[in-house]
Amino acid sequence: MPHVLLGLLAAGNRHGYELKRAHDSRLPRAKPLAFGQVYATLGRLQRDGLVVTTGQEREAGPDRTAYALTDQGRAALAGWLAAVEPPMPYVTSTLFTKVAVALLVADLNAARSYLIAQARAHTDRLRELTAVKTAPSTTLDDVVAVDYAVAHLDADLRWLRTTLARVADWHREVHS
Amino acid sequence: MSGLQARGVIRSYGPTPALRDVSLDVAEGEIVAVTGPSGCGKSTLLHCLAGILRPDKGEVHWRGERIDTWPEAARSRLRRTEFGVLFQFGQLVAELTAVENVALPLLLAGTGRREAGQAACEWLDRFGVADLADVRPGAMSGGQQQRCAMARALITGPRVIFADEPTGALDTLSGEEVLTQLVRFAREQGTTIVLVTHEPRIAAYADREVMLRDGVVDPTGLGLDEPLVPVPAAGPGAGPR
Ligand SMILES: Nc1ncnc2c1ncn2[C@@H]1O[C@H](COP(=O)(O)OP(=O)(O)O)[C@@H](O)[C@H]1O
Ligand SMILES: [Mg+2]
């Protein structure tokens, strides 16, 4: 989140409220930012010298302070944009963990029932998000966000189905 | 009775059973995906529903009429009017240009040359390939061919589109674009789609999914041996107290 705020400030000085609005419209399928989060993050960025408050105060209202990116902030943003994210350094997923734990503490049927229920929930969500793409007034912002979610749900679904086929063998191995 | 129904459809190829008692109801305006692993009978079901193949046993009904017993000429007329078919490879006529290919169904139905050509151009334009009007299929990409095939399938204003793996030969982006256009158009016109695919991502374009397995409808929808009692979905408040 801090880097997203830096990125939004790169386009020009903004108030906290404007940052929240810009975030929510650029990343339409993300969880909307809370004001508290925005101000807390701006506070930390200011402390670290990445942003400064500008003199452009508003007359009234709770949101009087506008922020600007410093040279140091600009460099931090460029560094973050250029850095490749480590591709899944740890294999962690609630889905995966849940099946592993189910096999430890419950029976095979519990693990399978969970996998089935999860696959159904994933399929429903996949359909819901795909409908966003075919809606008449969809924007490219939406399509790109939905594409990301669809690819991940699709990958999860493949994993869920494969694991469903393997879970009996896995259970035998865990309890041998 | 409106819409499309299969009732107890059985179909074999010689000794190979392809469909072993399939029943299916598709409402008008509905988009239904038929899914399942390769060889489970999806294409055979689509061909039976579209009146291309005749079931060995069972019935197919369209808008209250039993169509599987119709003679070939009547079924083939149905496929030129109320039904449209779209296959994995566009199956355009190689010797004809895009506009000639798209105009073909209208010409066969007796529409004049000029009028058919004009309508074909409008349809090509609607799917973003107007500039390919005078190009032959051999010089087009898979996605472009599929857009032309889609225009050809829709030009007669069918009420049902039967699509068999329409994105199967396309890269991800072209596939998505072709399907988005098809589904948008169908929703706009209230056209019914029967969409055969083995990909969950493609099936998600439909309102609902019917999974086949070894020639029968799989009630679990997940290719399981036996249906299991599902656990309730986790939500807020679920979990240990
Ligand atoms: N023309 C044919 N001749 C003989 N067997 C066929 C023919 N078409 C399909 N089959 C067989 O019928 C079964 C179902 O095929 P199909 O309907 O094409 O399945 P799907 O489309 O799901 O891959 C398969 O076992 C397939 O080998
Ligand atoms: Mg097939």
UniProtKB/TrEMBL annotation, chain A:
Alphabetical list of Gene3D superfamilies matching this protein: Winged helix-like DNA-binding domain superfamily/Winged helix DNA-binding domain
One Pfam family matching this protein: PadR
InterPro entries according to UniProt: Tscrpt_reg_PadR_N, WH-like_DNA-bd_sf, WH_DNA-bd_sf
Domain Transcription regulator PadR N-terminal: residue ranges: 5-78
PANTHER family: NEGATIVE TRANSCRIPTION REGULATOR PADR (PTHR43252:SF6), TRANSCRIPTIONAL REGULATOR YQJI (PTHR43252)
Protein name: Transcriptional regulator, PadR family
Species of origin: Micromonospora matsumotoense
TrEMBL record, chain B:
Record-annotated membrane-spanning stretches: none
Example of a GO MF term: transmembrane transporter activity
Keyword GTP-binding: no
InterPro entries named in the record: AAA+_ATPase, ABC_transporter-like_ATP-bd, ABC_transpr_LolD-like, MacB-like_ATP-bd, P-loop_NTPase
The UniProt record lists the keyword Transport: yes
Annotated ABC transporter domain residues: 4-239
This protein's UniProt keywords: ATP-binding, Nucleotide-binding, Transport
GO annotations of cellular component type: plasma membrane
SMART domains referenced in this protein's UniProt entry, alphabetically: AAA
Signal peptide: none
Domain of life: Bacteria
Name this polypeptide is given: Putative ABC transport system ATP-binding protein
Originating organism: Micromonospora matsumotoense
Origin organism lineage: Bacteria, Bacillati, Actinomycetota, Actinomycetes, Micromonosporales
